ATP-binding cassette domain-containing protein
Amino acid sequence: MNQQHSLLQIDGVTKTFPGVRALDNVTFSVLAGEVHGLVGENGAGKSTLMAVASGALVAESGRVVIDGTQTQGDTEQARRLGLAIVRQEPALMPDLTVAENLYLGVPSEQRPSLMSTSEWAQQRLRQWSENVAIDANERVSSLTPEQRFIVEIVKALAAKPKVLVLDEPTEHLLAEDVERLFERIRGVTASGCSVVYISHRIREVQKIANRITVLRDGQGQGTYDAEGLSEQQIVELIVGGALDREFPAKAGNGSANTVLDVASLSGAGFTDVSVRIKKGEIVGLAGIDGNGQREFMSALAGLIRSRGTVSVNGNPVNLRDSQAAAASGIRLLPGDRHRAGIFGELSVRENFSIRSLPFDSLKGWINQRGETRRAREAVTDFAVKTPSVETPIRSLSGGNQQKVVLASVLASQPKVLLVDEPTQGVDIGARMEIYKVLRQAAAAGTAVIVVSSDALEVAGLCDRVLIFSRGHIVKELRDGAVSENNITSAVLTATTERVRGTASIPAFWKWASGDWAPLAMLALAICALGLYAAHMNEAYLSARNLSGMLALVATLAIVSYGQQALMLVGGIDLSVGPLMGLMVVIQSFFLNDGSALSHQLTGWAIACLVAIAVGLVNWVLVCPFRLHPMVATLATYMALQAISLILRPVPGGIIADSLLDTIGTQIGFVPVIAIGAAGLALVLEFALFKTRTGLVFRGVGSRLEAARMAGVRTQLTLLAAYVGCSLLAAVAAVPMMAQVGSGDPNAGINYTLASIAAVVIGGASLFGGRGSFVGSLLGALLIIQVNVVTSFLDIGDSWQSYLLGGMILVSVALYSKSREMAVAK
């Protein structure tokens, strides 16, 4: 080691959760230039300890010192002091590009210009591997689990940390990338960096670590030199005694009964695969990733299209979708548990029973007592560490979440069980239990297929192993030939090339999921509708009609910009319409003919302060009080409308003509306010995609927790969005004032739904993270155009609702489908 001083010192840390003492007076020290292994069972406190170190959690007692400075439980402070952490579930924002995630993931002083972010990010990726198959401009949502983990590691390395924490870093990596990771670890420690290496893979820890600290049930069990401990000794320290590490007995000759019969199955990534699995046996699929084994498994689960013949217990199976496969008795235990296995907001009980509800229901009614009993039995059988079965599953450790998913899949009593990485993130003690459970399932008549990146696991668990290469089965290992060495040798000699790249996405859907597609489709719709209207009625293109239409567009567009800003961060504001009406009502008392300038300025000041106050109230209700945005802003909607009606029970207070003329100023037939609205859209669009503020807005909406971990001040961002939305609604009330001419309390009501419609039609995601201000402008233009066209064509006001509703449905369906198709499976 280069130096002997401590870069990370944790003294006497205690952390409790409801019903659980996660850490109990834990002390942990990492020296400069060393790799320090941190091992223990699921729920032992490893990830919690590192969350305390990173500031993500605040301990009840104890202290954390990074490079000589005591921290105050602040993630941004820990980042500034040089701590970077790679979590089990990558803390990435899926709607941002790889480059944008890397940009936000490094300290501000290390960030390049936003204009050169893509090139900078691609250089960071090439430092991982010269032939890395990750495009810096690709959205994270389109990456495979392995690629996302590589991005997470590259992000941590790009921060040039003093202390690098790696939490289960190899679970999604292939052998070649594990070696790359070890090379990077050796490189950073040679420069004096400390590395904390958390893993359930004991042999990896022994290979890379200098010292090892063991945690058990939240308590430290000592720190040891890695060279002085055998694998068995480490295991015994982890579990607190000797552990039987033998794999369960294999099936031998087994039964002659065939459970699963696959004949000439082909699909994306694999061709002409045939396999039979008999009762009592487990079949493993091995090969370099990308050679078809996982695609074959996905086809059997009905997740991707395939052609060929499949039967279960002699009955033909239709694999048209996952529901059909499940109805036939085929169930998948997914490899990416975080995204495809758990329902984060549901309880452990609900996550367990959701795949086997018929066992607890009668004519659609759930017997909660029976459901709870089965869930408790599963928690006991699988040694799931949870305060109760009613605990939200998202609060459990990764390994415990995975055990619940496995228990849930097995509880459905599948005829065919497809297992992707059966012990990924699971501790050593639980692994042996999982192996026994899988063997018991096979013996009971379930056909079991296993895909695992661990050759030893495949060899110890499986009766037969099928080697995949370039989408074909090229070799089969049976009986005594099933060994770790033979599997590795067969995999390496079967092919020397690895199929790289992201999941295959059709060109149209990839384009449709991008930022430009909504703009192009809206522009096409606007032009087509305009040409049709002009063909049917020449007056449509008259200067008078276009001038009036553009004035209405400006009003709707400006309030839509506020709605868009808020929806980018995952919010929504139903109060914008009544707020616009209140603005006009307030000004109707101050902007009359003959009013002194000071009186008018007072009106403008009051309106501005009221708008800011409304934004603050909405933020307080949503953030500190944690009300749903729709509930909070609906309450504000009613309050503002009530105030407007109190001030002006009936329309009154004529606005000065001179002011109305100024607001309605035109250049030719184009209102100046429309030019301003278009210019504002361009400015906001530039800010959204070319400034850090815009990047932060998109990041918060894409994934709030990941943005917080990246050092973004999420509450301040949400405050800015709510206040900004209200201020833009107040600005939109100015051109509306020219349209109504007096204090009408109902003037803005229709703008609430219209502003949301314009944003949605413009391509925004209802869940945050995606959107466009130019898209909002075009959406507003299309809505106003539809309203005007129906009047010109004299087809009835009802058609305004039909067409608007149809446009919203088509837009949501198209954008949702395209973004679903562009997500890596």
Summary: Confidence is low (pLDDT under 50) at residues 495-503.
